[in-house]
Specification:
Strand 2 and strand 3 form a beta hairpin. The protein is globular and about 50 Å long. It has 4 helices and 4 strands. It has one domain. It is about 30% helix and about 25% strand. With about 140 residues, the chain is of the alpha+beta class. A 4-stranded antiparallel beta sheet has the order 1-4-2-3, with helices on both faces. InterPro entries: DUF6325. This is DUF1269 domain-containing family protein. Pfam families: DUF6325. It comes from Microbacterium deminutum.
C-alpha cells in the first residue's frame, strides 16, 4: 500500500473576541495534536481593528524568553489564504488560522491512491449548524 509522507491538510479560521484566544481554544488545539488526530503545520493570529485593518502574527516568528522560536511550523498559510479566511471576521475581533494535517486520513488517502482514486472535492459544515439542523429535523 502507498504510504504518503503527509495526509490531507485543511485550513481553519477560528473566530474569537479580542486579540488573543482564551486558554480553552489553545487547549482544544493542543488536545487534537497530542491525541494524534492532527499535525499542526501552521498557526497564525489575525486581528481586525475597528477601522478594518488586519494585523497578522505568525507564531513561528515569535520567540520565547530564551530567544528560541515559540513554534517551528511550516508556514503554509499564505497572505492570500489569511486574507480569504479572515474576510468574514468583524472589526474588533480576531481569528486563529490553523493549517492541520489530517493524520487520521493519511492511510485512507494511500488506499484510495492504490485503488486509482482520490478525494476531488470536500465540503465542510460547522458542527453548530449540523447539530441545529439535526435537532430540528431528527428530534
Amino acid at each position: 500500500m502507498t504510504t504518503f509522507d503527509y495526509g490531507p491538510i485543511e485550513f481553519y479560521a477560528i473566530g474569537f473576541e479580542g486579540e488573543r484566544p482564551g486558554p480553552g481554544v489553545l487547549q482544544a488545539i493542543d488536545d487534537l495534536v497530542t491525541s494524534g488526530t492532527v499535525n499542526l503545520l501552521d498557526l497564525v493570529f489575525a486581528t481586525k481593528s475597528e477601522d478594518g485593518e488586519l494585523t497578522v502574527l505568525e507564531l513561528s516568528d515569535t520567540m520565547d524568553d530564551a530567544g528560541v522560536p515559540a513554534l517551528d511550523l511550516a508556514g503554509l498559510a499564505s497572505e492570500e489564504d489569511i486574507s480569504d479566511l479572515t474576510e468574514g471576521i468583524e472589526p474588533g475581533t480576531s481569528a486563529a488560522i490553523l493549517v492541520v494535517e489530517l493524520l487520521w486520513a493519511k492511510a485512507f488517502a494511500g488506499a484510495l491512491y492504490d485503488a486509482g482514486g482520490m478525494v476531488v472535492a470536500r465540503q465542510g459544515i460547522p458542527a453548530p449548524l449540523v447539530n441545529a439542523y439535526l435537532s430540528e429535523h431528527m428530534g
